[in-house]
Amino acid sequence: MNQHLSESEFSGYLLGIASDTTLEHLRSCDLCRQEMENFGAALSAFNQASLLYSREQAAARPIGSQAMAHESIPPRRAGLLAGPALRWGIGVAAAAVLTFAVALSALLHRSTPSPAIAHNMTVATPSVAAVASVPDPAQIAEDNQMMAAIEAEITQPDVSPLESFTSFQSSVALPDKARQTAKKKL
Amino acid sequence: MPETAICATMVSARELGFSVPEQALTELDDIDSLVRLYQARVLRYVLFSINDLDLAESITQDCFLKAYNGRANFRGDCSISTWLISIASNLVRDAVRTQKFRFWRSFRQNAADVTELAGVLPSGGTSPLTAMLAHEQARHVQQALTGLSPNQRAVFLMRFSEEMELQEIAAAMNMKVNTVKTHLHRAVITIREQLRGGNGGA
Fold first, then answer.
1. Average pLDDT of the residues in B31-53
2. What is the ipTM metric for this complex?
3. What's the pTM?
4. Dist. CA B157–CA A36, nearest whole Å
5. Is B53 on the interface with A (CB under 8 A)?
6. Mean pLDDT, range A45-63, rounded to an integer
7. What confidence score (pLDDT) does residue A62 get?
8. Which of A27, A92, A133, B181 sits in a 20 to 30 Å window from B64, CA-based?
């Protein structure tokens, strides 16, 4: 029996489905037997090393009943507070109640002012009314002046970036070379 | 055993007429002893299936949680270890499916990190040369595993690390036995080629 084991026969032996011919060959052929032993030794070394490695990792970060306790309990709680939709609804209702309370409080304060505030209001109201009804010519002139200044400011044409740069350039004393470079870039 | 078979029904295996060994039931009822006995093996299977330690730890924890919650459905027709590896296999498949991009990226990125694996081999009682050879062999197998497809890697680990029967692998992977044999055959050829290359043709 000179022909060595084929890949198929080799893997067949490893899968436990070797034929009698394969077994017979392995008994008589040192080379094939050696190859089989080498493969087995490599797998054995890997299995041993991988198990030890996994044991080390498992020992470093153990899992157990305590670690898994919170996961075995369903996170969703039964009752009214369960579910995001209900929680959202409760939030909206709370906001509405708060808004109503603030509005009601403001309304009550407005309808029943304190005596001091009521006094100030009665005192101030005629003076404001007087100012509004009888304009002071000096005040009118001052207002007109201010309006004219605003109008002039608004109607002034926009300064382009180039103009603002050149005005900046002229105000800052740049070296000639830098100025040339800046102009080229523009 | 497909995951659906484990979790789909709430009727216990005993109620369905399966005879579950008392010892297995006791083991399954004590989550701490279950973890203590099988965590390293499950972690090894998951870790070398996906090559991502963080994800492997998360999947391992999920596996024990599922096993514990579905312990009433353990039929006792295989060992607890095989049952756990089957659950882990389903979780790995889900993780690979849902995080395909991340899976491949991390597989390549972390490939070098697990070379420390060889360093954990005990060298006591053997000559330095033998220990060095064992380190190299473990490293070569680990590297060769990265060249397999996810299915080939899964069946290879089940067969040669977890020593599961072909029928058990077929049930765990939801495959026909012949498909398992094909995957194993290709995996063995690839690993042998890699080992020959890694050993300089030896």
1. 89
2. 0.79
3. 0.60
4. 18
5. yes
6. 86
7. 73
8. B181
Tell me if chain B has a CB within 8 Å of the CB of A41. Answer: yes
pLDDT tens-digit map of B80-113? 899 999 999 999 988 888 765 565 555 555 543 5
Residue with tokens 């005005």: A167
Most confident of A93-102, A158-167, B7-16, B143-152: B143-152
Q: How many CB atoms lie within 10 A of CB A114?
A: 9
Q: What is the mean pLDDT of residues A141-157?
A: 77
Token pair 């304060």: residue: A109
Taking the C-alpha atoms of residue A85 and residue B189, their distance in angstroms, rounded to an integer, is: 57
Of B53, B138, B159, the CB nearest to A57: B53
Domain boundaries, chain A: 7-62
Are B141 and A43 within 8 A, CB to CB? yes
Rg (CA), chain A: 47
Confirm or reject contact between B181 and chain A (CB < 8 A): yes
Nearest CA in chain A to B177: A15
Task: Tell me the pLDDT band of B157, cut-offs 50, 70 and 90.
Answer: very high
Structural domains of chain B sorted by starting position, each given as residue range(s) with its CATH number in brackets = 1-111 (1.10.1740.10)
Higher per-residue pLDDT: B107 or B39: B39
Determine the Cα angle at B161 with ends B175 and B93, to 5°: 40
Taking the CA atoms of A54, A59, A64 and A67 in sequence, report the sign of the dihedral they define: negative
The amino acid sitting at A122 is T
Residue B119, pLDDT score: 59
Rg (CA), chain B: 18
